[in-house]
Fold this sequence. Notes:
CATH superfamily of the largest domain: P-loop containing nucleotide triphosphate hydrolases
Bound molecules: adenosine-5'-triphosphate
CATH class of the largest domain: Alpha Beta
CATH topology of the largest domain: Rossmann fold
Number of helices: 17
Distance between the termini: 50 Å
Structural class: alpha/beta
Strand content: 25-35%
Pfam family, one: ABC_tran
Strand order of the largest sheet: 6-7-8-3-9-10
Shape: globular
Largest sheet: 6 strands, mixed
Protein name: Monosaccharide ABC transporter ATP-binding protein, CUT2 family
Radius of gyration: 24 Å
CATH architecture of the largest domain: 3-Layer(aba) Sandwich
Mean pLDDT: 88
GO molecular function: ATP binding
Number of domains: 3
Keywords: ATP-binding, Cell membrane, Membrane, Nucleotide-binding, Repeat, Sugar transport, Translocase, Transport
Amino acid sequence: MEEDNIILQAVNITKKFAGVTALDNVSINVHKGKVNVIVGENGAGKSTLMKILSGVYPEYDGTLLLQGEPVNFSNPKDAMSKGIAIIHQELNLIPYLSISANIFLGREIVDPLGLLDFKKMNAITKRLLERVECNVPATTLVSSLRVGQQQQVEIAKALLEDAKVVIMDEPTSAITDAEVEVLFRIIASLKKQQVSIVYISHKLDELFLIADRFVGLRDGKMVGTIENAEQGTKDDLIRLMVGRDITNLYIKDTLPLGDEIFKVENVSLPKPSNASQFLVNNVSFSLRKGEVLGVFGLMGAGRTELLETLFGLHSERMSGSIFIDGRKVDIRSVKDAVANGMGLVPEDRKKDGLVLSMPIYKNVSMASLDQVIDNGFLNNRAENGLAKQYIADLKIKTPSQNERSKNLSGGNQQKVVLSKWLATTPKILFLDEPTRGIDVNAKNEIYHWINTLAKRGLGVLVVSSELPEIMAICDRIIVMGKSRITGEFTKNEATEDIIMNAAIL
Ligand SMILES: Nc1ncnc2c1ncn2[C@@H]1O[C@H](COP(=O)(O)OP(=O)(O)OP(=O)(O)O)[C@@H](O)[C@H]1O
């Protein structure tokens, strides 16, 4: 590869945090007009490297070269003015401002009188929105946009500054399949304009659709590249990430099922704004001990609302009945749910699952304080012991149980949330998208965990929008569409086509 095909280079980059070397002498090249995919297990250092490339971390050892010239970005704005933009997993728009105001925030256009030139800014925004296939007026409030559209606005914002490199950190983790298609078309058109993409994702199948080349990171080190993505196989990619083949790929054991542990009858949840429309509409199902029941549905089908309703989060509006071990229960709060042996690992770990500023051990014990209280006092040793056990069991990558949760990589944060709920020793566990943002190896480990829990006699309800996942890990699958149950299939009956057809009813 000739030098002029390389737009951005990281040369011998080392980045240390207290106690952790996140990047160890890493050198990578970003090729011009290509989709450069960075792969690696959770905690490998991908996000840290992206933050260095985009000015979020101005301090590190080593050098960045932009078109062969050394650069040092003092902050993301500085990086952006030099043509490097980053689209974070959590989008950064201001909801109560218009699209145009967001795009021009901090770089507003003023007319000769010094007044804000809305007409000009709206006109430029309109053109940028067209480039990213977002067909809404420039004056639309960001709060009224779907997540996928907000992401398109972020990309439009990057294009305003004529980005040469756009970094995307797990861009498809929260958008619909239709929005993914639009995103991939935008990426293709950016490539044509010689814009370079740096892309991180754990969804291996999608990577093969868009990657031109792969760069592998492992434990903070650069371990190799696959220069021609078309010639790489899924096994090559896994080997690059993990350093070995994953031989123990998951297939669920078929276990004898126990008695019915959980039953739901005619559960409904009306919309807060309109009691004649429903977020969950007349849902009934049952779950047996040792059973893994999947809930599949497209975005907005009511899956997360169903779990929340059953977990006592909307008790004031909910109707219908819940039975545990054949006994009718009244779940009016999360506390009631936990007291009745239920656990919920939520979809949005940062918002609902973790207190990020707290150390790991506090998060792990948070929902099971009775286990770590001695004579009315918190027993620090018991709390630490509990956390240590889960760090070992779930292979959480951290210097110690004292590390603040916000310093963990995304995948490892997810494992802490899982630990928190396993520590409550639930009888019924709800998992909402349990492997989002999780690498291929850790996914496999989590599947084995789910199997182990089922063997211990738990009833497990798993919501997932990944069809291959739900088909691999469940004994039975219910499908939701438009807030109702639209299909139910055993493991043997389920095929991707049948499930998808039920979901789009
Ligand atoms: N601010 C921080 N303070 C301390 N340690 C950190 C900080 N940020 C990252 N780390 C550590 O650096 C390592 C690399 O983390 P990074 O987030 O870059 O991984 P990643 O490859 O993006 O992982 P994932 O796929 O799980 O998101 C991890 O061990 C993480 O705990």
